[in-house]
Design brief:
The protein has about 240 residues and is of the alpha/beta class. About 35% of the residues lie in helices and about 25% in strands. Strands 1, 2, 3, 4, 5, 6, 7, 8, 9, 10 and 11 form an eleven-stranded mixed sheet that branches. Helix 1 crosses helix 8. The protein is elongated and about 60 Å long.
C-alpha cells in the first residue's frame, strides 16, 4: 500500500500524520487499562498496521465512548475510526467492510422470568445499554415495548443495571459472560440479538480514503492479520468477518 496514490494518502491523512480514533470503552478491541493515547489491543494494532502499510506516521486519539468517536470521524477530528458499522452512522461516515463480528445479547438477574430473547421486548422491561453504542442504535430501531435506560459507556451501563435493579443488560456477549460470573444467579440469554460489525470509518466525502481502508481491511482479513491480532490479545467470542 506504500504505492497508493499520493492524492489518496493525502485525503486520508491531510495533516501528514494518520490520526487513529480508538474507543477505549470497547474492551474487546482495546485492552482494559490501556492509557489514553497509548492503547493496546486489536484495534490499535490494526491502526498501526494501516499506517505502516501506507508509510505514514501515526498517533492515537482516544475516546471513552462509541458515540464520541463517531462524532470525531464525522467531523474529521480524526482520520480513521475503529467503530461499529451501523446504518445510522453510515449516513455520515464511509465504512470499510467489517473486519470483526461481535455478538450482542442480554444478561438478566437471578430469578428473572425472562427466559429467551423474545421475552425482553415487553411492557415493563427496562434494558440497560451503553448510550450511542452500535447495539443501542439497533435496539432503538427494533424494540417496541421495552424501555432503554442509557448510560455513558459500558461500565456505567453495568452499574446502572445492578444499582437500579433493571430487568436486562444489553451488551457484547463475551463481556456479559464475564459480568455473569460476578453476579450470583445472573444468566446470559442464549442466541444473539444482532452482531456488531466492526469496521474502519472515514469522513463521508473522502472517497479515495474510503477505498484505501476498504483495500486494507480486505487484505488484513485475507492475510490473517486480523486473526493473529485476535489471538495475540486473547480475545474470545468474536469472529473474523468473511471477505466482502
Amino acid at each position: 500500500m506504500k504505492n497508493a496514490p499520493d492524492e489518496a494518502k493525502k485525503e486520508l491523512a491531510p495533516g501528514g500524520t494518520l490520526r487513529i480514533g480508538i474507543n477505549h470503552s470497547n474492551f474487546l478491541l482495546v485492552n482494559p487499562g490501556s492509557p489514553p493515547g497509548a492503547p493496546r489491543g486489536i484495534a490499535p494494532d490494526l491502526g498501526a498496521e494501516l499506517a505502516r502499510r501506507l508509510g505514514l506516521p501515526f498517533e492515537y486519539v482516544s475516546f471513552d465512548g462509541a458515540g464520541k468517536l463517531a462524532d470525531a470521524v464525522k467531523d474529521a477530528a480524526v482520520d480513521v475510526g475503529f467503530i461499529g458499522n451501523e446504518p445510522q452512522r453510515a449516513e455520515v461516515i464511509a465504512f470499510s467492510p467489517p473486519y470483526l463480528e461481535l455478538p450482542v445479547t442480554y444478561l438478566v438477574p437471578a430469578g428473572s422470568a425472562i427466559r429467551s430473547l423474545g421475552d425482553v421486548d415487553r411492557a415493563g422491561v427496562r434494558v440497560s445499554v451503553s448510550a450511542r453504542s452500535a447495539y443501542d442504535l439497533f435496539l432503538t430501531r427494533h424494540l417496541k415495548h421495552a424501555v432503554l435506560v442509557r448510560s455513558e459507556g459500558i461500565p456505567a451501563s453495568v452499574k446502572a443495571f445492578a444499582e437500579q435493579k433493571l430487568e436486562a443488560l444489553a451488551g457484547l456477549k463475551p463481556g456479559l459472560m464475564d459480568e455473569a460470573k460476578k453476579l450470583a444467579g445472573a444468566r446470559v440469554l442464549d442466541g444473539q440479538v444482532t452482531a456488531v460489525l466492526q469496521s474502519v470509518g472515514v469522513p463521508k466525502k473522502r472517497a479515495a480514503a474510503a477505498r484505501l481502508v476498504h483495500d486494507f481491511v480486505e487484505a488484513a482479513k485475507a492475510e490473517g492479520v486480523v486473526a493473529r491480532a485476535v489471538e495475540k490479545h486473547g480475545v474470545r467470542g468474536v469472529n473474523v468477518a468473511p471477505a466482502s
